[in-house]
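Newbie here. two chains, one complex. Structure please?
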Amino acid sequence: MADYTNYTNREMQAISIAKSISDGQIAIVGTGLPLIGAALAKRIYAPNCTLIVESGLMDCAPIEVPRSVGDIRLMAHCAVQWPNVRYVGFQANEWLHDTSRMVAFIGGAQIDAYGNVNSTCIGDYHNPVTRFTGSGGANGIATFVNTIIMMQHEKRRFMDKIDYVTSAGWIDGPDGRAKVGLPANRGPQMVVTDRGIMKFDEQTKRMYLYGYYETSSPEDIIENTGFEIDVSKAIKIDPPTPDIIKIIREEIDPKQAFIKVPQ
Amino acid sequence: MKKVYQLSDAISKFVHDGDYIAFGGFTTNRKPIAAVSEIIRQGQKDFILDSGPTGSDADMLIGAGRVKAYINCYTANSGVTNVSRRFRHAIEKGEILFEDYSQDAAVLMFHGAALGLPYVPIRMMLGTGLVDHWGISKEDRQKIDKLPNDKFLIQDDPFNPGHQIVLLPVPKIDVAILHVQMASFDGTCRIDGDEFHDVDLAIASKHCIVTCEELVTDEYIRREPSLNTIPGFCVDAVVHLPHGAHPSQCYGCYDYDNPFYVMYDKASKTQEDFDQFLKDWVYDVKDHSGYLNKLGGARLADLKAVPGFGYHTDMTKMAQEG
């Protein structure tokens, strides 16, 4: 008999992503965890959500797990295969609609207390210690759409000052986005890590601990966050039930493309 | 039939040292890898490479030392290599001029060029490193004729005073190379699945080379013109090149060759191993036929797309498992 009680923090992260999508919402997903989370949302928590990807594929319903946002597995069975540039226009016109219509998932290597994200380089931009892919669609997404940011929760990644801002969060506070010319009524809503869920204070737009997994604690979060973080409002997040873990392992990612099952 | 070429003739005629070059496709999908390999064999160099989201197409050309300036928005064989390794190495070691835009900006710059616009005004990139940092300085840009002198300009929106906008220059592309499912003798192209930015490249380039899975008569491709997206006027050379996108995907034709990408991931870790990869899979195979023979028929058959899915999956297993 397979064991479905030995859940991992990565599975918790996927479930947190799934629960963050409201029913009927349009979710902009990348590959990896957001796709697994969104597939789980569609299956359990938000059956009427729809998935789109930055390559221009609209209302995707992949049967097999895709490896990239341009994967044929997303092209098959979708509603419309738009050229990139149509997607860009669609996204930039999101101001016409309710702020809650769409939610997007982005990731990165570094994040600061205001949800600004770095996916470009570690160290100096011109002479980096480590170079990453660069923006991809993340900068445009973070400009026009509310985001949920996926991160590995480590002190060296949660920093007071990140090495490069690839995707704008709240910049430096409540007026930050308006000051630099970005839509002020959109921005990061949540940070989902392998230790818990962070949100942003409505007044200050600074990150605070909303909830921690049972394998973590407020002390563990403080220990692994490189800036001062308010944990006074934190709740303990319930562990997943075995039936949810069974669905992830057997139906959503059976080949363990993005979530490894513990031995 | 004056547009139909052998691959080597098309590349030698239209690809030159110092060209501003752009490839169609998207990371690991419909990338003109066979054409990239032929460029590497022939020796053209000093390119300004600008292709939107790329994978091993850009990484191979960078690793082979042929790129002088790289306009980047995203470079990865996603799912196998999360950051393309020769690209990463070249930047970390300061071996290449590079510039960063967001993917939205990159495809809008191609689209602006395709629409004949002088520049493209956008509201993205503000408040980020994409406007705080120039990868290629103004001084370096002034030394390279084919690059605009400015990465972008920030201006007041003339229709909405008090609001800043970013003006992006449009690229002047010397040569674009696309891989498509079907083309006819006169250069008419049919792309199945997402066209990505390919049509914009065909319109906005001085020369466009198309490699295709199937080469058909003009009469055949015109039986269903609603499926065609590039008229022959935009195309200078058509090359019949089955599996010309391998190891990337080609919708309706074949899937990515994952073991090949895994091999490339390992080979691209060091320059030495990468050079051996080029020797084995580019120089020593002589041409695309040699490359396909080295891959082998069974391997290619195993990548064949399933009708209705567009990608490869084991249908025998699917049927047996019900």
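Moderator note: The helical segments of chain A are 9-19, 33-45, 72-75, 84-92, 138-144, 176-180, 218-223, 242-252. The radius of gyration of chain A is 18 Å. Thread marked as resolved.
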